[in-house]
Amino acid sequence: MRILKKDMKNMEITLLVESLDDIWHLENIIDTGDIIKAKTMRKVSLKKAGEYEYGEKRPMILTIKAEKVEFQKDSGILRITGPIIEGPEDVPKQSYHTIQINVNTTVSIIKEWKKYHLDRLEKAKIKKPSLFICILDREKCEFFVLKESGLERIGSIENYDKENMDSYREQIYRFLKKQTEFDKMVIAGPGFERENLFKYISEKDRGLSNKVILEHSSSPGLTGANEVIKKSANRILRDTRIAKESGHVQEIMKRIKTDGLVVYGPRETEKAVKIGAVETLFISQKKVKEFEKLMELQEKMGGNVIIIGDDHETGEQFLHIGGIAGFLRFRIE
């Protein structure tokens, strides 16, 4: 995400979207009621005999007031729908329009910018490499990429000839060889096939084998990929959003079980924040609107605020305990 213009006097920030992860960040920044301005396509309306007729679509710059924000993950498009408040003369004001934001879109946002909005923009400016994960057994191999926006499955290879395992491994090797943008690759799975594949790769390509980190997973597929993420939170994946958030949630659960310095649940956490007892406040992404004032109070009290996404297993687990918790500076009654 590149910030092209920042006019905080008028509460306007203009951004250039550079990746799918940027779009995911924008989905969590743009709220209903925000003013959105971008180049878009719309049919021109012509008034004849007191009625509007629509011609061909043409490019134009429109400003709308957001009423609906929807991220279409399959297409990588963020759709923002609302009434038009500014545009060319031949476009009726207050008529509805949908602005589509994808990679390379320039968009201006006017809103009441909160600190957590601005923090997210700063994080989006830092481009961190995603991680490649290969999960396999003797039957099937699946490939995943871990991005800021979550875990994405990018392909699979099935083994149709158990008598010729080298043919299966060669197909996997060729797929891995094409993933040149990754500095590290995790190969994991149940059983010993991950070691067999690593040995096969090492004999063919020492450069590629140096990128590989072997991990065990008790299950194949998506379940196995999620297991790898959880297990590796403090090592190879520690710099990714999901791993960091998983680590936080795991520590919260550990402190709850051991009666440590932690508080959770809306009422108990709010009480602790108000007396300055919370060192770090954790809020689920789904609960940000609900606890916005509490987040602002926590920052005024000199504490930290961390938002936990709800698009992964531990994030959902965090929601089940109320979606709000805090690490305490001292024990309270």
Characterization of the model:
With 333 residues, this protein is an alpha+beta fold. The chain folds into three domains: 2-112, Pelota, domain A (SH3 type barrels, Roll); 131-231, 2-Layer Sandwich (Nucleotidyltransferase, domain 5); 241-328, 2-Layer Sandwich (60s Ribosomal Protein L30, Chain: A). 31% of the residues lie in helices and 36% in strands. The chain contains ten helices and 17 strands. The strands form three sheets. Strands 1, 2, 3, 4, 5, 6, 7 and 8 form an eight-stranded antiparallel beta sheet that branches. A five-stranded mixed beta sheet has the order 11-10-9-12-13, sandwiched between helices. A four-stranded mixed beta sheet has the order 14-17-15-16, sandwiched between helices. A hairpin with a 4-residue loop joins strand 5 (68-72) and strand 6. Helix 1 runs antiparallel to helix 2 and helix 7 runs parallel beside helix 10 (313-320). It is flat and about 75 Å long.
Please compute the radius of gyration using only Cα atoms: 24 Å
Going by CATH, what is the homologous superfamily of the largest domain?
Pelota, domain A
Mean pLDDT: 89
CATH-defined architecture of the largest domain: Roll
Major beta sheet, specifics? 8 strands, antiparallel
Measured distance between first and last alpha carbons: 44 Å
Number of domains: 3
What is the helix fraction of residues, given as a range? Answer: 25-40%
Element order: H for helix, E for strand: EEHEEEEEEHEEEHEHHEHHEHEHEHE
Structural class: alpha+beta
Q: Determine the oligomeric state from the structure.
A: single chain
CATH topology of the largest domain: SH3 type barrels
